[in-house]
Every structure is written in C-alpha cells, then in structure tokens.
Here is the input.
Amino acid sequence: MNPIIARLLVKIAKRRVENKHPKIPATKREVVPVVRTLQVELRHNIKEFFFIAIGVFSAGFGLKGFLLPNKFIDGGATGVSLLLENLTHFPLEFLLIIVNLPFLILGARTINRKFAIKSIIAISMLAIVVHLIDYPTITDDKLLIAVFGGFFLGLGIGMSMRGGGVIDGTEVLAIYLSKKFSLTIGDVLLLINILIFSFGAYVLSVETALYAILTYLAAAKTVDFVVDGVEEYVGVTIISEKHEEIRVMLIESLRRACTIYAGKGGYGKRGNSYDKDILYTVITRLEMSKLETEIDKIDKDAFIVMGTVKDLRGGMIKKKPMKS
Here is the structure.
C-alpha cells in the first residue's frame, strides 16, 4: 500500500481508538486491527466505485449513442425519463435525478443509507456524463438501436448493482412492493414496465413502444448476465475458524438470521478430528457487497459458497431486517 495512505490510515485508526478511551493513549495492539479494517473498507470501496464508474459510462453510451438521438425509450425510471424528455424537451440529465429521487429516498428507508448514498452518486455521475460527454450516434437502424442500446444500458445497470448501488430506481420500488404483496420482484417490474410501454404507445406510437419492449428485454437479459438478476436471492454458506464472530456480524451488522450446522474438518493435518460450526444465511443480491466486506474484515481466508435461490417461503428474508 502507498506509504502516504498507510500513514493516513494509522492516524485515523489512532483517532478512533482514542475517541473510545480519551484519557488513555492508543496502543499498537489496539490500532493494528482498526487499521486492517480500514484497509479492507478502502479496498472494497475502490472496487465498488470502479464497478459503478464502468456502469455509468456504459449506460451513458447506451443512452446518448443509441436511444436518445433516435427518440427511443426504455423501461423503468430511465424509460420514464426518456419519455418525459421526448414530451417536454427538458434536459435528460435533470430528469434522471428528479425521477429517481423518490426511489432513492425509499431505498434509504427500506434497504440502508449506504446503498442510497452509492445510488445517489451513481445517478448523479450518470447525469453529469449525459450532460458533458458527447457520445457519437452509432446507427440509425431501429433494430440495432433497440438491441445494443438495451445491451449497454443493461450493462450499466448490472455493473452499478455489482458496486452496491443502482442507476434505475424502479428496482428499489419493486423490492419494497414485493415485501408488501405476494409478488416477486420480477412480477412488480413487469407490471411497472407494462404501464410505461402502454403510455409510450399512446403518446408516441405503437412502433416506438414495441421497440422499447425489445430494448427492455435486451437490457434485462444483460443485467441477468452481469449479476444473475436483481430478483434472485443468494444462499451463502460460510466456513471459518472465526465462525462465532461472523455469526455476530450477520446478526448485528447485516441484521439477518442465520442457521448453524455442526460440522467437522476434513482437510489438513488435523483431518476430521476437530469440530467447527458452518453458517448458512440467505440475503438479497444488493447485500452481497456488504457481506463480503464484513467477512473480509473478520477472516480473509473464510471459505464462502454462494448459490442463487430461486424460490423462498417463510423465514425472515422477505421481512424487514431484524432490529438491532
């Protein structure tokens, strides 16, 4: 790590320790774990914002290189913004922020503030990119516009989600409504987009609405390819020597329940002669980034198995997170 950054992290760590015990000087033993935590947070934040930056530039290319010059629309909040831009000729960069703002407020209340802050940054960056960067118009072929405009827009949405945020707020609304009603997130998104495309067909043309559906399908499939779909949950199995610390983190930091299996080690010199607890939990895709960061803080050598969960019934996952 860069020596300047390392010294800065040590100073921040000392300040954090001394704030807890103002009258006692911070010792090296107390400072070292805090420094390691700060290093993990910094590394993960850099990676996440790198994903978001790629997503923003990709989405900007899809919008200004394909959809916007040809007056095409898409689904979701981005589609609403494009539709309003076609009708009012108000700058798209401002509409992206205005349309997404209510969803981000909802996200801060239903998911977490860190997610909302990342999403605000991502959408603001997208607005700046759309305003400042003059992407070339790639083609005027309607089929190519629909397919590749949707592809680059979907790539942008997917990469932003990999970074722990969104550039289209309708996913947040879908998550919220799915918890209130007996619907999957995919069902809610479908209903929202049916309304958008129907309105697009009424105020623009049926042909434009049909191409918009094709754009949406291309974007949705690309998102699926990048992040396995926003509507899917993830089952996580964690095997670690520090299983008790990770269990406490799942409950206190992520506020999620977990199941503990009694297991035995079957590798290494000790073979299967020692017992260890195996943790299993189910989280949403948007919580994956935070989970990986928190586990890395505790045990960077933890063995983690992640698998997509298609169907869920009962349990805590579709309810609000446990109270801390």
